[in-house]
Amino acid sequence: MGKTKKIMILGAGELGKEVAISAKRLGQHVIAIDNYPLAPAMQVADQFEVIDMLDAAALNQVVKKHNPDIILPEVEAIRTEKLVEFEKSGIFVVPTAEATYLTMNREAIRDVAANELKLKTAQFTYAQSFEEFQKACKKIGFPCVIKPLMSSSGKGQSVAYSPEDLQNSWQYAMEGARGDLKKVIVEEFIKFDFEITLLTIKQKKGPTLFVSPIGHRQERGDYQESWLPIPMKEQQLLTAQEMAKKITDRLGGAGLFGVEFFITDDEVYFSELSPRPHDTGMVTLISQDLSEFDLHVRAILGLPIPEIFYYGPSASHVILADSQNSEPPQYNGLENSLIQAGTDIRIFGKPFTRKYRRMGVSLARGINIDDARKKAKKAADSLCVK
Ligand SMILES: Nc1ncnc2c1ncn2[C@@H]1O[C@H](COP(=O)(O)OP(=O)(O)O)[C@@H](O)[C@H]1O
Ligand SMILES: [Mg+2]
Predict the structure, then answer these.
(1) Domain end: 93, 112, 137, which one?
(2) What CATH number did the domain enclosing 260 receive?
(3) Is 222 in the pocket of ligand 1 (CB under 6 A)?
(4) Does the C-beta of 149 come closer than 6 Å to ligand 1?
(5) 89 is catalytic
(6) Residue 14 belongs to a domain with what CATH number?
């Protein structure tokens, strides 16, 4: 495949760090970018820069300086208009500049999924003022889910059970919104039996591949634990795969996507997708030979993926900080955490904590999913972040 590629990773958190490691293992040159020094991916990259990624001039400057072959947006908070320009200048923006633009705005991607591609989703509508919001919730019915159009990891997201909740939900959404877009999506609350992430790999050459479906549990709209494989009806898995293929084909380019679905007894609802590795996919660091990060890098470089070999039922559990601390964190209890066979820990190396900030993840394999989840939880609970 020719010469070493210069890969610029925009967003140097835990996902960017694992992508950097996978790329380094294949001999690529990695430049990690984020808005604070010592971010996880910077610790393993060849070079790094600290800039505000919403600042067009700053983005321009680092791209000019490093002249990357590939730009990997690993977070949503990026001045995506710039990505279009970089793409026009011949840089491969992963998976495409348009995909990163569409997926950072819930309205844009919902429009493509529901209106253009006719994928089944929860009922939804939008609101830009409190009055509109009240009408929107009445139309959708209670309970309903409220999300700012631009936000991630559950920020600004809430469930309203009755009209009395609306004032709080609106306020919370306004505070949690990224940027100055004062618009929310109101969604029908789906009482799903379970939800899955279907990691979908779009290759330059070769067929679209799927990782075994990943089950996960969210709290405060943020992932707490994930496991693989989640048992599900064959027909529903095929339906989810078909929907994932449709939307990733529409978005184009190459790379791994995390496609989220809600599953009920008789329905498969498309929810949203990330055009990059997914946090719930961290379980693939222990469940198989090629993790979601390895798969992403191979897909981007156009390298073969002849097989994904699974080691058995596996789980991951997040390790959260319980308070804010500007000192470098200490991790107590590694010896207890690692005592169980088939268990491992990934500490991300973030330089400071915030309450509920994700600082690491535990990984476990078990004789079945229950066993793997218990082991992962025990390993995470044994570790204390101070
Ligand atoms: N319409 C809905 N019905 C039921 N639960 C939902 C709905 N929308 C979101 N959720 C729950 O909230 C979580 C986060 O929502 P999501 O839309 O994925 O936001 P984010 O971009 O922050 O991940 C989902 O994984 C799911 O558990
Ligand atoms: Mg999500």
Answers:
(1) 93
(2) 3.30.470.20
(3) no
(4) no
(5) no
(6) 3.40.50.20
252 and 364, same structural domain?
Answer: yes
Tell me which residue range forms the domain holding 89.
6-93
Please tell me whether residues 219 and 354 are part of one structural domain.
Answer: yes
Q: How confident is the prediction for the chain on average, in pLDDT?
A: 96
Q: How many domains does the chain have?
A: 3
Q: Is 200 a catalytic residue?
A: no
Distance 263 CA to ligand 1 centre (A): 13
Listed in sequence order, the residues at least 6 apart from 306 whose beta carbon sits closer than 8 Å to its beta carbon are none
Tell me the pLDDT band of 164, cut-offs 50, 70 and 90: very high
User: What does 241-305 look like in DSSP terms, one character per residue?
Assistant: HHHHHHHHHHH-SSEEEEEEEEE-SS-EEEEEEESS--GGGGGHHHHBSS-HHHHHHHHHHT---
> Is the CB of 43 within 6 Å of ligand 1?
no
Active-site residue 225, yes or no?
no
What distance in angstroms lies between residue 330's CA and the mean position of ligand 1's atoms? Answer: 32
Tens-digit pLDDT profile for residues 284-337: 999 999 999 999 999 999 999 999 999 999 999 999 998 888 888 999 999 999
Task: Sort strands 184-188 and 384-385 into parallel, antiparallel or unpaired.
Answer: unpaired
Residue 221 Cα to ligand 1 midpoint, Å, equals: 6
Q: Are residues 178 and 203 in the same domain?
A: no
pTM to 2 decimals?
0.97
